[in-house]
Write a structure and sequence with these properties.
Elements lengths: L3 E5 L12 H13 L4 E4 L11 H15 L5 E4 L5 H14 L3 E5 L8 H14 L4 E5 L1 H4 L5 H7 L5 E6 L4 H10 L5 E4 L5 H7 L3 E4 L6 H12 L3 H17 L7 H9 L19 H11 L3
Parallel strand pairs: 1-2, 1-8, 2-3, 3-4, 4-5, 5-6, 6-7, 7-8
């Protein structure tokens, strides 16, 4: 089981939108140096929707190579086509990913039975640990807690990233899941509380900017030091909110560029951060100690 603060890593790009592997190497060292507990490569924050299949697999390959065993690498391999998700998951497993993260099929709006059969098919096709990812605010598809729990009975479905921000749902999942089924928050604003309830960690956008803070906050929450966790969380609160001031990953990529860690590249239909939000993001980063 993987614990702690796992960064939903951006995919750095040059001005022309091509992937910047030198910046990717720098980002990985930044996370190694700052205590990040794991990297999610080419998840939805990594602009998986706009990378072609070859690029998607190459970023996974390079991330695994550059991390070189220093922390777990979880590959984003979800798709709204079951066969595409199987193909991406198979490639990630062959490349040596420690696990795969599979977002619910977006736009299709499958039934709960369709979701169950989708994930079951991927799990049966590829023998690699797989983490479900429910983010209804982005996919227009909400996987029920009972569907997640039913899927957890499949041996290599090992966890769930819950980005609903609903702590009542988290409590239910914690109370009903088996001890070997990991629960990760996908909502930075409630991640500390999620872990205090019994979750194993967070898959975080904020960790791109403040990796040490997110790591320390999750450690404190897991150890039951709610005062320490709340104090750290208060410093990160503006980042949790303002990294979504425009569609993610627009704000987080702009701020990483401002920090000198990546270039300005982002792919259409996403656009650079609007000028009137620049001061908002700078202030949030300063409060978190990132600038």
């Amino acid at each position: 089981m993987i614990y702690g603060s796992l960064v939903a890593l951006v995919t750095p790009m040059n001005t022309d939108g091509s992937i910047d592997l030198a910046a990717l190497a720098g980002l990985i060292e930044f996370h190694v140096d700052n205590g990040t507990d794991g990297i999610v490569a080419v998840g939805t924050t990594g602009e998986s929707a706009t990378l072609d299949v070859d690029e998607h697999c190459e970023v996974i390959r390079q991330t695994i190579r550059l991390v070189n065993g220093r922390m777990p690498v979880i590959a984003g391999t979800g798709a709204n086509s079951t066969q595409e998700a199987i193909a991406l998951t198979r490639t990630a497993a062959e490349l040596g990913a420690d696990a795969c993260l599979l977002v619910t099929p977006y736009y299709n709006k499958p039934t709960q039975e369709g979701l169950y059969l989708h994930y079951k098919a991927i799990a049966e096709a590829v023998d690699v640990p797989q983490i479900l990812y429910n983010v209804p605010g982005r996919t227009a598809c909400d996987m029920s807690d009972d569907t997640s729990l039913k899927l957890s009975e499949i041996t290599n479905i090992v966890g769930l990233k819950d980005a609903t921000g609903d702590l009542d749902r988290a409590r239910y999942l914690v109370s009903q899941r088996s001890s070997d089924f990991a629960l990760y928050s996908g909502d930075d604003a409630t991640a500390g509380q999620f872990v205090a309830i019994g979750g194993e960690g967070v898959i975080s956008v904020t960790a791109n900017i403040a990796p040490a803070g997110m790591h320390d906050m999750i450690v404190a929450a897991r150890e039951g030091d709610t005062s320490q966790a709340a104090g750290i969380d208060a410093r990160l609160e503006s980042l949790h909110r303002d990294l979504f001031i425009e569609s993610s990953p627009i704000p987080v990529k702009w701020l990483l560029h401002e920090m000198g860690l990546i270039g300005p590249g982002i792919r259409l239909p996403l656009t650079p951060l609007s000028d009137h939000y620049h001061s908002v993001l700078r202030n949030a980063a300063r409060k978190a100690g990132a600038l």
